[in-house]
Design brief:
4 strands; TPR-like_helical_dom_sf; metalloprotease; hydrolase; 4-stranded mixed β-sheet; mainly alpha; metal-binding; 500 residues; M48 family metalloprotease; disordered N terminus
């Protein structure tokens, strides 16, 4: 079973929905759900296209959750890692998207349609990039072997109760509900469905085997899988009686699985893999992002000071200084943030996009727009593949009232990253300031399509149509509206099918 995300801090009505689901399924949870025969992987009734549609509907709600991390640095890093691993997955048939959740528990999970969620706690507790990659590879293996799709369409009553409730919540959202609690509830229900799938031991072993091969072929250290197993098993033992011991009850870690992976490492050999700078800096950043109380933040800050003072390597010290700079930036103490960031920059070997993005943000907050523009132009030259740098550059252009340049650059960026929603949102802002209401609404329609909010996308297109008298432009917009409405009806039909 995937490393399960626990829904946290949901609104009251979200908890009510979840509680009713738990009551419905409680009498059935003792029965092992399992999976059909592990022959040729088959999605039974759920084709990859339908699975992706269901996943998109779930993710539309997930992005509304307070726990969803929208940080461009984090999600690009995770998705790049996932897609690098997925290149070596057999018969995947789904694009992989990996995202992060603000949750200190050590968990991860797979949703329908190739979506992989990683709790910040799993990232921050990993001892190396290869350890983190081993978990992502395992989750991708569940997707590639169609474990998720097959689990959803199995006949056990407990799973169908959960799927029906999830489909009902998603149908409500598809009708245009913008209620944050409903979105959080739907995403929490998706996690509950994930738990109810109950992958068999055989399915877990298969995910280990397929994930191991992905890890090896992608150039990671396969010992990372062994080390992560050991780390997770130790965590389970330490928390046997605690409420946080969710992992051990939902993901059967066995000595047999550990032994199987150890045997593969011994028989096939291994090679070392050096942690990327992004891994090191983002792990520090997530430590701060997951601290949800003042006391937790103070504890993290004390740890970073201790790390900076006692670091055995320059990279470890640089990561601590970066974390302290990020903390100071959050507190709006920009001189202190700049001081710590300068210390993080001291060793030129550790030049990284994450440092440059923070430097730009500090200059922006200090209203030093000339410096921010200079820094962002330099960063763009150094890190042309960084989405966070691209977004920071556009932000600087807009604050400098250079919307024409922003629109020009955004056009190039959208060609490069057509699936990055935030680009369209920024494009709409610049078009609006330039007085082009039609293009602004068309850009927002693209934004809402990408995040799965189809009813809102239709509204934006209708507004764009009403703002123009150009016959050809109206005809093109009418075509888009028709296509979106057809897609909406298809999604409703799919969800009604699961609801029944």
């Amino acid at each position: 079973m995937p490393f399960l995300m626990k829904p946290t801090r949901l609104k009251k009505c979200a908890w009510t929905v979840m509680l009713s689901l738990a009551v419905c399924a409680s009498s059935l949870q003792a029965q092992p759900v399992g999976l059909p025969s592990m022959g040729a992987a088959s999605g039974v009734e759920l084709s990859p296209t339908l699975e992706r549609t269901l996943g998109n509907a779930i993710m539309e709600q997930g992005r509304r959750s307070p726990e969803y991390i929208s940080d461009a640095d984090v999600n690009q890093y995770l998705t790049n890692m996932g897609r690098k691993l997925a290149q070596n997955a057999p018969n995947l048939g789904q694009p992989i998207t990996v995202f992060a959740m603000r949750d200190s528990s050590i968990n991860a999970f797979a949703l329908p349609g190739g979506y992989i969620g990683i709790n910040s706690g799993l990232f921050t507790s990993s001892g190396s990039e290869s350890e983190l990659a081993s978990v992502i590879a395992h989750e991708i293996a569940h997707v590639a072997q169609r474990h998720v799709a097959r689990g959803i369409t199995q006949s056990e009553q407990s799973s169908h109760l959960m799927i029906a409730a999830l489909a009902g919540a998603l149908l409500g959202a598809l009708a245009g509900s913008a209620d944050l609690a409903m979105g959080a509830a739907a995403f929490g229900q998706a996690a509950a469905v994930d738990k109810q799938l109950g992958f068999s031991r055989q399915a877990e072993q298969e995910a280990d085997r397929v994930g191991y091969e992905m890890l090896r072929k992608a150039g990671f250290d396969t010992r990372g899988m062994v080390q992560m197993f050991q780390r997770l098993m130790a965590h389970s033992r330490l928390n046997e009686s605690g409420a946080s011991n969710e992992y051990s009850s939902t993901h059967p870690l066995t000595t047999q699985r550990l032994s199987d992976v150890e045997n593969r490492v011994q028989s096939q050999g291994t090679h070392s893999h050096q942690n990327s700078l992004s891994y090191v800096y983002l792990r520090t950043k997530l430590l701060i992002m997951q601290a949800n109380t003042m006391q937790a933040l103070r504890t993290v800050e004390q740890g970073l000071h201790s790390q900076a003072n006692s670091a055995t390597t320059e990279l470890e010290r640089s990561a601590a200084d970066y974390g302290l700079a990020y903390l100071a930036w959050q507190r709006q103490d920009y001189p202190q943030a700049a001081k710590y960031l300068k210390q993080a920059y001291q060793d030129k070997r550790f030049d990284a996009a994450e440092l440059d993005v923070l430097a730009i943000q500090i200059s922006l907050r200090e209203q030093n727009l000339t410096q921010a523009l200079h820094l962002s132009e330099q960063a763009l030259q150094r890190w042309p593949e960084s989405q966070a740098v691209a977004l920071a550059y556009v932000q600087v252009l807009q604050q400098n009232k250079q919307d024409t340049q922003a629109v020009r650059y955004l056009g190039q960026a959208i060609e490069h990253w057509p699936e990055l929603p935030r680009l369209y949102q920024l494009q709409a802002q610049s078009y609006d300031r330039l007085g082009d209401g039609v293009k602004a609404r068309l850009a927002m329609a693209e934004y809402y399509q990408l995040i799965g909010a189809l009813p809102t996308a239709v509204e934006q297109l209708q507004q764009a149509r009403n703002l123009t008298s150009d016959f050809y432009a109206q005809s093109e917009i009418d075509t888009q509206i028709t296509q979106l409405r057809h897609r909406l009806e298809s999604e409703r039909a799919l969800l009604e099918r699961f609801k029944s």
